[in-house]
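We emphasize that the prediction below concerns an isolated chain of 80 residues; any contacts that depend on oligomerization or on bound cofactors are therefore not represented. The input was used exactly as deposited, without trimming of termini.
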Amino acid sequence: MHDGCTGSFSNGKQMADKVRMMGFSIQSMPMPLPIKCENCEAEFEMETFEDKCPSCKMVYAVTPCSAFDPANVQAAGIDY
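Result of the prediction step, given as a C-alpha cell string:
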C-alpha cells in the first residue's frame, strides 16, 4: 500500500524498508543532502534516497516526499 506523503516511521529501518519497497532506494534525489553520520560523525552527501556513510557503512534513508530537509533523514543501521 502506498501512503503518499502521509506515512510515518518510528525508526530508520521502517523508512529504509518503505523506500526499498517503493523502488526508490537507488534513485537519485532531486538535490544531494549534506549528512553528518550519527555513528562516526563523518560528513558526506546523500545522493540517493537510501545511501551509506562511506566511513562506517551506516545506512540512511529518506522518502521522496521528505527529501528536501536533512532533518528528515533517518539512520537504519550499519550495513542494513
